[in-house]
Amino acid sequence: MTSHPIVPAPRLPSLPPRPGPSAAPAAAPAAPTASALQAAAGRAVRSAVASVAKADKADLLMWVLAIVVSMYVWRFQGLFRIFAVTKVTLLSMCAALLIFANDRHPMRSLKGIDSPMARAALGILALILISTPFSVYRRASFEFLTTDFLLNLTMMVLVAASIRGPRDVDWHIRAFMFGCAVYTLMSMRGSRSDRLSGRGYYDANDLGALLVCAIPLTVYLLRVTPNKLWRLVGTLLLAVFLYAIIKTSSRGAFLGLISVALFVLVAYRTIPVRVRVGVSLAGVLLFAAAGSQEFWERMGTILRPEEDYNFSGKSVSGRGEVWKRGIGYMLSNPVGVGPFAFPWAEGRSDIALERQEQGMGFKWSAAHNSFIQIGAELGVLGLALMLFAIKSGVTGLNRMAKRARSLGEIAGSAQAVQGALIGFCVAGSFVSFAYSSLIYWIFGVAIGILKLEPKVTPVPAEASGRRR
Q1: Is residue 331 a part of any domain in this protein?
Q2: 3-state secondary structure of 301
């Protein structure tokens, strides 16, 4: 096992010995000055900070979890046939569970990840178990529970429990970004249509939402990477991700990118202002140069919804009409229509039956909105738990970043994951990602960061030598 260095507590200056009865009276010690007290406090806090920041190097569990994320989030088994043939997806998850079960590190325990976000995720699991027997298509709901959701939830728990310190958080973010880079580049290589879609699994809107959530994490890596070569690689990846978002022509991703850009520009305070402004301007210039006329005309319909069939009200399969029906399913079914059963609820809707009687076709559509999806499929309580989990993550990470500003690395990663959650809230409103591996990976990293909060001590501005 890896040995863990023990950082000794800073020694306080010893007091002079008490004079004996026969000793000459000693001069009274000078009262400590304010600057001496501040210096002592600074040394004490910096010693405590060093003990938290000194995390273990990546061990076998971290490497196996990197493979798990590559399989479950980035679907490497669809990119490289060898992973599908050798069943790496299942084997990596089993290996991660086995390694975690035999890990004796004090920071790696299920008790350590008990948090409002984790409880909300378990509450969603409970609702899925309750809703499945009443689903409009029980077989699809049961298969989704056993072959999809439980694995995503397990991944969340393992990611959260594996984090021992800031360097583990950094490792998870780097592993996520590696998968994002490989998947994006492979998708661009194999794209044969006007709109860039994910290769083998994700469509254009899905890929756009994934990339939006990756942008603040990429900015974080640019900040913490000391090597100039890796900074160059990170800058190129950021440009590739932004260009890929353009090529998806996804309006939801475009709105999500705007929200993430505003977050980076205004709220990502662990990055110097000049860097935030520079990155934002570079992104604007890239969009101006790479965005075609068709792209900007498509984005322009955001301000002119009457020109978009999705929201003009003229098409029963438009997203506006789908969302209205989804809200109706949520309000009329206390336990929802069943997990992963939204399309079958569409097929049994009144308008579907009416069009069938008229000999007309009807699209059994997905929800195209993560929040309406979970509300329709699990009821109002499911939507409430989803919103509570995201709200707990955003507020908790914001609190963590403020307390740990002097730590730099953990504060930066907390704000990066906060940005990913904000990006999901916007871009996820246009895709069906309510139970996706993406959001449960974000939940896992957020829970792992927040479990470090009791160990983080805020450094006073005077002691750290920084001005607020």
Answers
A1: no
A2: coil
E strand map for 191-260:
none
Q: List for the chain the helix, strand, coil content (%; round to 5).
A: 70, 0, 30
Instruction: Kindly report whether the global pTM for this prediction surpasses the value 0.90.
Output: no
Sign of dihedral through CA atoms 63, 69, 72, 76? negative
What is the Cα–Cα distance from 197 to 431, expressed in whole angstroms?
A: 13
Does residue 298 form part of some domain? yes
Task: Please state, in angstroms and rounded to a whole number, the distance separating the CA atoms of residues 4 and 167.
Answer: 14
Question: What's the Cα-to-Cα distance from 168 to each of 58, 62, 410, 414, rounded to whole Å?
Answer: 7, 8, 10, 13
Structure token digits, residue 208: 């756009």
Query: Dihedral sign, CA of 288, 417, 383, 197?
Result: positive
Mean pLDDT lowest among 107-111, 127-131, 181-185, 357-361: 357-361
Per-residue tokens: 192: 């044969």
Per the domain annotation, does 299 fall within a domain? yes
Structure tokens at 294: 């068709």
Domain range for residue 80? 52-311+366-458
Q: Closest Cα to residue 61, out of 152, 179, 163? A: 163
Distance CA 34, CA 462 (A): 11
- Count of domains forming the chain: 1
Residues 105/164, Cβ–Cβ less than 8 Å? yes
Task: Report the range of poorest mean pLDDT among 12-16, 421-425, 448-452.
Answer: 12-16
Q: Which residues contact 3 (CB under 8 A, 6 or more apart)?
A: none
Cβ density class 225-261: b for 16+ within 10 Å, e for less: beeeeeeeebeebbebbbbbbbbbbbbbbbbbbebbb
- Do the Cβ atoms of 118 and 180 come closer than 8 Å? no
Amino acid letter for position 102: N
Whether 135 maps to a domain, the answer reads yes
Q: Which of 437, 443, 439, 427 is nearest to 204 (CA)?
A: 427
